[in-house]
Structure formats: structure tokens, C-alpha cells
């Protein structure tokens, strides 16, 4: 196994060219050796800009490149499963952007592909490997705040561009799929079990049909998670984790800044103004660099990837239940 895993990238999505590729190029275990686009000129431009040696005018050509060990798939949601499966069948390990699929059943089909091909396939929830989140869960497990009882989270941005893939319903657009998946997966991360039922209120854009404002409750009896996500609100992110003896606040939980230290707040609530809180700070780091290195280590050492497909399928089942509840107005079971 090479010292560094050699990665190829399918497509020139903004998240890849602006965030993930530059971060992975700094990794101790990752090397970006190829990028592909359906337009060769776009692949060549991205390769020149990012210092990638090989550019291809089709995804098939990249998958045929024997120098590529693993593939990062940041394609639109409806292309996640088809191209992840093709990459696996070509013998490449796969890190696929979230959400892993359009449906839980579709995600489950990847498990069969993974088992048949013997490669690693995982979902790219970069938050799972950041020290900030790992420390917060350590504090919850330790009993620092008492029994975990409630989680609240907000995640929003404003985007009404009808041509943006996040606003195209047919290919998996909408707020719950794009950003609601984060509080869903991280509440499961902390409670360490699945919600028994969910209830949701969803407001859809009258022109695009996508969910633009969604609020949901996840029943982890005896605990609860309540979150709101929106594609048409002022940009904001926060997560609060509550127990009878304290709370933990994660300030910018999902887009953790890569250019300055991050922090979490632990408060016993003895002073409502926050004077009783203490802060734990984490050194400046890039969550995409960490994600790439941890995934590459799993390949090199034949270990478990950070977010395995079984986790991805379970998360999709909760996403589906939230969307169903928004339509039926009833509690729904994942």
C-alpha cells in the first residue's frame, strides 16, 4: 500500500474545487492525482488551478486510471449511487458526498456492491472526524451534563437560484436533504441510537417545490432532538446539547472555520448570563483534511471508514420519515 492514497475526483463541483481538494492536498495520507468532468476543458482548468496531474473528459476515463486508488464523489445527489457503484466495480474505494442517496433503499443497494467488490465505501460527513465533535461526545458519554435529554439545532442559508442543484427537487434538492441531514446524523451520533418516530412541519417553495423551511422533532425516548433548517433564511448555524446538569454549545457546528481555532462551550447553567460557562478551544484545523486522512488510513490498514454505509442507510431512513411526516402531518417511523 502506498504511503499516500491516490485520489481521483468525479466532477468539478464547488465543494470539491473550493474546499475538499485543497484540504486533501495538505493531508498526510492523501494525494489528488486525477479529476474528471463531462467537459474536458472544465477538468483541465480545475487541474491547472489545483495542481492535479491528470484531467479527463469523462468519469469512465478516470475510473479506468490504474494510478487511482480511491474516488471522491461530489456529484449531484441523484448521481451518488450510480457513480459510486461504478467506481467500486472498477476497484476504487469511494468517499461519497452526503446524502449518500435519494432513498434508503437506493443507499442499501451500495452495501451489496461494497460486499461484492471488497472496497471501502463511506459517506462524506466530515463532522464525524473533527476533534470538536469527538470531544463533545466524550463529554456527553462522561456524564458531564448528566443524562442526555435534548438537542436543538438550527442550520440555514439563503439561495433562491432555480438553477442551483440544491433547488431542483427531482435530483434531491431541498433543505432537509442538503442541510437537515446534519442535525439528524449528529443527534444520532450523540444519542447513539435511532429515533423511534419523527414529526415535521415543512414549507415548500411555491415555484420550485423544494422544502425551504423545515422543523422536525426526533423522538429518542426519553430524549428528543428538535431542529430547523432552511434554504431561504439568514445564514446561521448552532447546536445545543442539554442534560439536567449542564449544556454543551457548538458555535459553528457544520462549517467549522479552517482558518482559526474552534471552540465549544460547557455550562452548568448556574448563571443564566453565561458567566458560569467554560470554553474548550481546538487548534486550527481543516475538517476535510482530517476526513481524507482518516478515510485513507482505513484503506491502508483495512479498518472501518468514519461513516459506513449501514450508518448512511439509517440516516436516510430518518430523512425519509421527516419528509413523509411533513406531507402527512403525522408521526412517522423511520
Layout of helices and strands:
Elements: E1 5-10, H1 14-24, E2 30-36, H2 40-50, E3 54-56, H3 59-63, E4 70-73, H4 80-89, E5 93-97, H5 104-117, E6 121-124, H6 131-142, E7 150-158, H7 175-191, E8 197-204, E9 211-220, E10 223-230, E11 232-243, E12 246-250, E13 262-267, E14 277-282, H8 287-301, H9 309-328
Parallel strand pairs: 1-2, 1-4, 2-3, 4-5, 5-6, 7-10
Antiparallel strand pairs: 7-11, 8-9, 9-10, 11-12, 12-13, 13-14
Got a strand count? 14
Regions with pLDDT < 50 over 5+ consecutive residues? none
Q: Which geometry do the CA atoms define?
A: globular
User: Would you tell me the structural class of the helices and strands?
Assistant: alpha/beta
Number of helices, where a helix is a run of at least 4 consecutive DSSP H or I residues: 9
What is the typical, i.e. mean, pLDDT? 97
Order of SSEs? EHEHEHEHEHEHEHEEEEEEEHH
Helix content: 25-40%
Question: How do the strands of the widest beta sheet line up side by side?
Answer: 8-9-10-7-11-12-13-14
Concise account of the structure shown:
The protein has 334 residues and is an alpha/beta fold. The protein has helices at 14-24, 40-50, 59-63, 80-89, 104-117, 131-142, 175-191, 287-301, 309-328; strands at 5-10, 30-36, 54-56, 70-73, 93-97, 121-124, 150-158, 197-204, 211-220, 223-230, 232-243, 246-250, 262-267, 277-282.
Amino acid at each position: 500500500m502506498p504511503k499516500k492514497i491516490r485520489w481521483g475526483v468525479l466532477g468539478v463541483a464547488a465543494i470539491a474545487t473550493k474546499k475538499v481538494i485543497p484540504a486533501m492536498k495538505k493531508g498526510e495520507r492523501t494525494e489528488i492525482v486525477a479529476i474528471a468532468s463531462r467537459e474536458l476543458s472544465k477538468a483541465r482548468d480545475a487541474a491547472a488551478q489545483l495542481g492535479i496531474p491528470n484531467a479527463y473528459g469523462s468519469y469512465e476515463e478516470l475510473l479506468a486510471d490504474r494510478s487511482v486508488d480511491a474516488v471522491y464523489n461530489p456529484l449531484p445527489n441523484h448521481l451518488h449511487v450510480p457513480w459510486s457503484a461504478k467506481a467500486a466495480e472498477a476497484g476504487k474505494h469511494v468517499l461519497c458526498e452526503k446524502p449518500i442517496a435519494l432513498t434508503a433503499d437506493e443507499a442499501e443497494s451500495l452495501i451489496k456492491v461494497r460486499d461484492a467488490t471488497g472496497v471501502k465505501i463511506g459517506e462524506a460527513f466530515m463532522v464525524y472526524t473533527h476533534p470538536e465533535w469527538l470531544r463533545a461526545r466524550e463529554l456527553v458519554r462522561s456524564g458531564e451534563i448528566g443524562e442526555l435529554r435534548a438537542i436543538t439545532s438550527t442550520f440555514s442559508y439563503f439561495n433562491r437560484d432555480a438553477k442551483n442543484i440544491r433547488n431542483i427537487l427531482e435530483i434531491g434538492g431541498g433543505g432537509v436533504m442538503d442541510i437537515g441531514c446534519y442535525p439528524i446524523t449528529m443527534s444520532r451520533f450523540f444519542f447513539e441510537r435511532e429515533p423511534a418516530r419523527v414529526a415535521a412541519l415543512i414549507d415548500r417553495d411555491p415555484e420550485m417545490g423544494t422544502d425551504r423551511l423545515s422543523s422536525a422533532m426526533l423522538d429518542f425516548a426519553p430524549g428528543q432532538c428538535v431542529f430547523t433548517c432552511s434554504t431561504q433564511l439568514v445564514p446561521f448555524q448552532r447546536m445545543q446539547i442539554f442534560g439536567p446538569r449542564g449544556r454543551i454549545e457548538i458555535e459553528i457546528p457544520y462549517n467549522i472555520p479552517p482558518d482559526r481555532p474552534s471552540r465549544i462551550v460547557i455550562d452548568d447553567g448556574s448563571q443564566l448570563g453565561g458567566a458560569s460557562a467554560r470554553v474548550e478551544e481546538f487548534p486550527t484545523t481543516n475538517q476535510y483534511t482530517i476526513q481524507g486522512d482518516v478515510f485513507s488510513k482505513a484503506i491502508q490498514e483495512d479498518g472501518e471508514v468514519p461513516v459506513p454505509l449501514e450508518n448512511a442507510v439509517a440516516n436516510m431512513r430518518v430523512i425519509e420519515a421527516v419528509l413523509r411526516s411533513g406531507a402527512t402531518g403525522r408521526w412517522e417511523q423511520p
